[in-house]
Write a structure and sequence with these properties.
The protein has 150 residues and is mainly α. The chain has one domain. The chain contains five helices and two strands, in the order ααββααα. A two-stranded antiparallel sheet has the order 1-2. A hairpin with a 4-residue loop joins strand 1 and strand 2. Helix 4 packs antiparallel against helix 5. The protein starts with a helix and ends in a 14-residue tail after the last helix.
Amino acid sequence: MFLSSTHQQSNSTEAEVASRLERWQKPLAAVLAIHGFAHLPGVIVALAAWSDGTSIEYLFGNWTISNSTVLLTAVGMWAALAASFAAVAIAIGTGHRQGLRLLRIAVAASLVACVVALPSAAIGAAINVALLTWLVTLPADANLANADQT
């Protein structure tokens, strides 16, 4: 009896998680797409510094980047983050089976980049912390509601 009760509880929890994910799937995809666009100022600032021969400051001004190779690396990093959030938004919006896994990776990478770019990326860091907090509340193996269709 205990095993069947536990099994029913597990199925109930899975159904609740699936329902919650389905309810938030489209709004979450929209937020992620917007968050992806929010990485574009990082591209623009680093690209402008590279083309003007100036520098950018990260880590509250403790790290000044003026080397052209490192500036172009920063451009690539911010562009890759923007593209990854666009891809994750599509994956979440369409209910792709790996959407949440990809979201966890994108949020972790974005959080690291935003922390390095503080204080100018404080809002991005806060959004990443909020997303990460929400992701932590989900079971590790949670999938989107229609994941079995993809």
